Amino acid sequence: MANILVVDDEMGIRELLSEILGDEGHVVTTAENAQQAREQRAAGAPDLVLLDIWMPDTDGVTLLKEWQRDGLLTMPVIMMSGHATIDTAVEATRIGALNFLEKPISLQKLLKAVQQGLTRGREPVRPAPSFQMRSTVTGPTVITAVPMESTFSSTVMSNMTQSANTSMSILPVEASSFTLSFNLPLREARDAFERAYFEHHLTRENGSMTRVAEKTGLERTHLYRKLKQLGVEPGKAAKKG
Fold first, then answer.
1. For residues 101 and 82, is the Cβ–Cβ distance under 8 A?
2. Is 240 helix (H, G, I), strand (E, B) or coil?
3. Disulfide engineering: 68 pairs with which of 3, 15, 73, 186, CB 3.0-4.6 Å?
4. According to the model, what pLDDT value does residue 180 have?
5. What pTM did the predictor assign?
6. Contact yes or no for 238/202 (Cβ under 8 A)
């Protein structure tokens, strides 16, 4: 049994992780933002922290930096995000995160990561590898990230493989002339791609949210939330076809 702190601004995520980890015999406390997480940490170090990246007040990576700077990063921390990228994983592990999980988190990956965190404790911080961006232009841009050294955590790379194959590759969109400008800030470039990606699938599936959820590998609730966040209206996207 371990004391685990779950930090996430989504109530559904906090409740789900609390239920799963509680069933495994752990004592779970939750925080919905960075300030509450700071208060929980001040009350005593948990055995493990599950920390979301995108939060309204202070993001998870910044909070991780604070704990590292103030000597409070004495427990293993597993980062979580629905917008995982290789760069973010590198930065988090360089600071001191033990692992990185992409949302929606599968039960098997969650339990495996938690078990590893509790048995291994926090690993020494390793220097982050450099990445070489290879660009091949065949119509729209295709981007792949290739690690230049092998010191990056194999566990994190394993968890990020699927994300790298999808989020880090910009593939031709059949029904549009979508292109990506490298001059955009990272978050804007990612949002632009995701917007085109979902509009493409909505057009192909005639606006069927069930089929789009199957194609994209997202749960329907997560898909609806993502479309709202990107400003994509399923009905309008379907009419484009």
1. no
2. coil
3. 73
4. 67
5. 0.53
6. yes
